[in-house]
Amino acid sequence: MFRFRKGPKHASKVQEARLIKTARWLKEDPLKVIPECKGECLMCKFGKSKKLIEKIAARKDDQKYLAKASTRGTDLSKAVAVSLQFANEKKLPVLATAKTSKGDINYVKGGAKEKYLLGIQHFHDPTIRLFAYHDESKRGFYLYSWGDRIVCTGKEDRPPKGYWDKRMSSMSYNLKKTDDAYSCGHTSSGMPHTYISLSWKGTGYKVELCYRCARTNVNLFTHLTEGMLSKDNTESFSLSGAYRLECKVECHGCTLDTGKPLPDNLCDDYYGGEISDRELIKRYEKYAREQLNKREKLYVIGNSCYGRDINEFFEAFDYEPWEKVPIKKAIHKTSGPMILEQASINELLSGIWDTMGKDIILSITEDEDITERLYRDPEEMDTVPREILREAYRSKEVIDRLNTIPEFENLSPEAQLAHDLAVVYKTDGAGETVSHIDNLDTGDTRLKALAFGFLVALDSGDSRRWKFNQSEIDAGLSLEKHVARLLDSQGDEYADALRDLLKMSGSTSRIVVK
What we know:
By secondary structure, this protein is an alpha+beta fold. The protein is built from 21 helices and 19 strands.
């Protein structure tokens, strides 16, 4: 609990004044260091010390007697004698310094063990005074310190009401007493708040706190046991938690048990003061969600539970119409739960991608070659799953559009150019079509007029007029509506639109569908 620096240290005036003030306070009644007895022991552990201190109290002004008493007796009585020796002094001898869990503490050396000297000479501090009773706690005794009181309940953990009231009144939380606990008000049944419950075994005391109210700089266990001393304070407490979910559907006979004991490693971190209340609840919630992943069918988003209702579950997502059917089919085929942090299609897909990714892509493209080209193993993916599905959908759209375009025999140069540009437009869009025209290398006036007609129909004619002569521009302008009809047509209408466009361009070539 503490170790000592080597070498003496001269006391400052403030330190001297504090130690002397405590010594004079103890001199008024040295027996106040004997814990109040609230136990049922056959023989009091402090009986011998009490008798010795009674003698010291009777001769508290006899310096020779105090000097002798500081080297004989129990460590508790010797520590009292040391303290009373300098109660009437104005200046202290050199001090020793102990590095403790409470920080550096100065004290006057004497015949007692250092921890007894620390506790008695700083008896005004309810937590430091417990140093003087450390040995007794190791033998199974329970002690509680607050205000100017120190109480022993023997070998039974029975914190006095005064101690409990003091700890509660000095707490950073505004807790209210309910039927069986002190609560922040957000832990009752039906409230969708994850919370932890710290129970003081055998006392009926319990504190419940939700994540929203928990603080990052408070540890309830540390606070409640600040003035408690026992062989192991953690044995007096138990930690449990409730991972509450908001029911979004009405399940018949819900079997979801959201109450989970905390794992040992999490309890150890908390009892050791390494994490705060809020961090404890945060880690507990993560642990509880991991436990839900071990169940069978269950759909959860954040703190919302949809039971086994896949329809209500999926309606929580912002999905595109074409995504709904293939993704829902994939979910139906999975046997495990889906526990998501948020209603994210990407998060949903990531959880099933390694087993269902190919099936989802194939159900969209209906083409195994495209599916093999687009699918990536989770470890090899350089994009999110949803983007892969969008690419699959675009590929399917391209295939569907191409399937609506007839095949032709022996097209003339004008017909071939018009057909090629229309196919590029239907598969890759207006931008690629304009780029294709920009890369066209021909001096043929009819082909250039036809190309300009496409540019005008695609709203790109004005910026490229300089590439064409006036006759090519005039001819292209006259073809605009016929080009637009071709770009919007499909099937038999496409062939008619192509014939009409060629006729208006002055071509006499025939259009023959295979």
